[in-house]
Design brief:
By secondary structure, this protein is an alpha+beta fold. The protein has ten helices and four strands, in the order βαβαααααααββαα. Helix 1 (about 15-25) links the parallel strand 1 (about 5-10) and strand 2 (about 35-40).
């Protein structure tokens, strides 16, 4: 029987996708799953949907930052409470580099790479907007030579086109924001979910054992 599958669409700029990633990575509930990370441009998806950036909506900017802090606390996600200086930041070059990395490296390395990059952004408050800022983090995970190759490949038409097609794929899967999950259970049935609040609903159709004692899970519908 095929293992349950989860696709998480990712843009480093999204703190809620970081929280979702952390739960998928740490929680024993998701250990049986085959998890795939697909890198997209959140801004492009939102623009195509006619969606408004939440920080620009009156009252929502303050509310969503409070929600970020609450969700991080509930799931014990490492994250500073104050807003990252210069947020929202430019993630294009880093997203292209991550897309290039998918062409040559296994998912386990991508997971480690995401953990390091998000730690830099939301724990250490260090910028990853420019190649000279994120290249050392790629080297930390992949090694200097492999990181150099990935960064060079990120400027290629192949990597740029792949990032664009990934974003189009997310749109075709119904995404209008992040985190966006596409899940396939052992019977081949597909469901789609939006938001960290859906994390419990992500687990249910996959037949996963949901933790009954962890407070983060108990607060989810």
């Amino acid at each position: 029987m095929a293992p349950p599958k989860i696709t998480l669409y990712v843009d480093l700029i999204s703190p809620f996708t970081y929280i979702a990633f952390h739960v998928l990575r740490i929680s024993p509930a998701f250990k049986p799953c085959e998890i795939t990370f697909v890198f997209i441009l959140l801004g492009g998806v939102m623009k195509a949907c006619g969606n408004t950036p939440p920080l620009t909506i009156k009252n929502k900017g303050k509310w969503i930052n409070e929600e970020r802090i609450k969700k991080a606390r509930l799931f014990n996600v490492p994250m500073k409470e104050d807003i990252f200086p210069g947020f929202p930041f430019r993630s294009l070059e880093a997203q292209r580099a991550l897309t290039a990395a998918t062409m040559t490296h296994p998912c386990s390395k991508l997971e480690e790479l995401l953990a390091v990059l998000w730690d830099s952004i939301f724990v250490q408050h260090r910028s990853i907007a420019k190649p000279e800022e994120f290249t050392p983090l790629f080297a930390q995970v992949l090694g200097e030579e492999a990181a150099k190759e990935v960064i060079e490949k990120s400027a290629s038409p192949e990597a740029k086109n792949k990032l664009t097609s990934n974003s189009e794929e997310a749109m075709n899967e119904g995404a209008f924001g992040l985190p966006w999950f596409v899940v396939i259970n052992a019977s081949g049935e597909t469901d789609r979910f939006f938001g960290v609040d859906s994390i419990k609903r992500v687990a249910l159709p996959l037949g996963l054992d949901i933790p009954s004692t962890e407070i983060g899970w108990r607060t989810m519908l």
